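User: quick one, fold this
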Amino acid sequence: MSRGYFAFVRRDADRRYHATLPDFPGCTAEADTLEALTSAVRETVREQARSTGWPAATRLEALPRAPGDHEGFWLMVDFAHQG
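Assistant:
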């Protein structure tokens, strides 16, 4: 089964990417490139899902919005796993 989760991505002053995942509270990842960030998100989420399971993915229109969101963007990360 394939499933996708959204990560909210921001860049810091050192130009590193940081991602938070609303479907996995407390789950974060960071990396120097977007490609590396996507891999880091996958690794972090798979690790978390081993203990908590795979939650239903939040649809884009239901994702939380905050005043500072213009400083970042939503990234869909696909996962292939056995349901």
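User: anything notable?
Assistant: The chain has one domain: 2-80.
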